[in-house]
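Our platform keeps sequence and structure together, in a single record for each protein. Because each token names a local backbone shape, the row as a whole describes the fold. One such record is reproduced below, unchanged from the form in which we store it:
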Amino acid sequence: SKVEPMAIISSLKALGELGINNESFSVKNLESTLTWSTRSCPIKEVVMLLSFTLNRRNTESQNILYNEVVKSLERRWVELKDGKLFVSLLHYVELFSPQFVAKLEDRIADLMEEISPGDLALILAELGRKRRRNVPLLKSLTFYLTKHRNMLDIKQISDSLFALNQLSYKDHDTLERLCSQLENHIQDTESSPVLRSILTSLGQLKYLHTPVVDRIMAWYQARLDNNIPMTMKDMTTLLITCATLNHNPVQHSSLLEHISQHLAQDLTQPDQVWLDTVWSLTLLGRVTPLHLESVLSPAFHTSLLYNTSNKTVGSTLKLLNINAAAKLLYPAYQGPTIKVAEDALLKDIKVSPSLAKVQLTQSVMEAFSTLFPPPRLLRTNVNTLLGCVAEGEFVCDTSGKPLLVQDLSDNFGSAEPVKPLPPNAHRMALVTASFQDCLIGGGLTGLTALNIRLMEAAGYRVFLVRWSDWQPASKLVARVKMLDGRLKQVLGVEAERLT
């Protein structure tokens, strides 16, 4: 007679509820029947058996059944066709051998055209949760997902963006197509958690899709107009995303102003969250003296800097950004500030750039050192005390002729120069912007843009070299020529000659 695994599973559950011992004959007999059934029952039932047996491995009989289920799945992988079964197996991916997982991912790639877009979104979400970054599979998945994007709902697109963020898969075309579909769904949604997820993913991916972000802001504004308040989570997520993406839309200034007026420190939240919030308000020009004082007060910043559980280089730099902004961008602020130059910890803070940033900076500095040889004419890797590092600091006249930096530097306003700056001379900061310092598709991240604003407010002109404009493989002579031309452009030398 045909064995019905699902009926046997129900029987085993019932025996467990009745308190029948796992070592009893009836339990062992049913488990033995299931073990034999794994070779012939439908593959869908074997997957169900996996989730049933996973947490029932207390006796020898139960272990034999579990091992047989895993072996059966590894043997019968060619029978897998259903998208939801792939999702279930990816959920348990750590139980299988690497060879089986590779076959499973190949099988998904082979059947891609036959799997529904909804199931493809589920597969992508599971790959994201398990951090499985198989790039050929992701390329294929995102191709078919975006091809049928009109069949996806807001939750499926939100989950897909979440997965792409988890996997750091930053393909501009994929993000553009998913977001263009997302635009149509925002107005009709009732779910603020889905919108928060979308904002967080776009912020962490560093991808600004202006219509999507603006429609989410309009959604919140419409709710406020109907007297539905924003939660603290909604406000902080929106602020941090707008700041990260350097997005400060004039048409939504009343929404940002509302958030600024209604945000207060929640003592149940970690200090880091409030620091990120005030940093975002600072960048967007919405910070109030009370906000600034809340993080620059000795009690808050001492706890943040010297409490080892909170302390990260990133949070220290954000605190220094806020401190510099309070002094340089908000002259009306009268509250406490941090005397950075007198603090040994802050004065010598070490930033660890990514490998890509190090390589870009080395290539740029190798060429720039030909024009401005260090140490007399160029200081390198300068801690500005503003919460950022300048890759180079130099001084030149209006035609780009080098002057002695050691005599004329004021270290971004934190030290007295040896000699006063001559007329028609400029203090300059050389800044490199790697891929991580820029948004996907161009533009600077909020962090990079704020650092530049602070250096400019400290009296420096910023000479910015972006990764997208730089050709590290070109010969040194060509790189030197390019930098020389760019510097003259920044100084306006060519424009003056033409007028």
Remarks:
- Residues 366 and 498 are 31 Å apart (CA to CA).
- The chain has 24 helices and five strands.
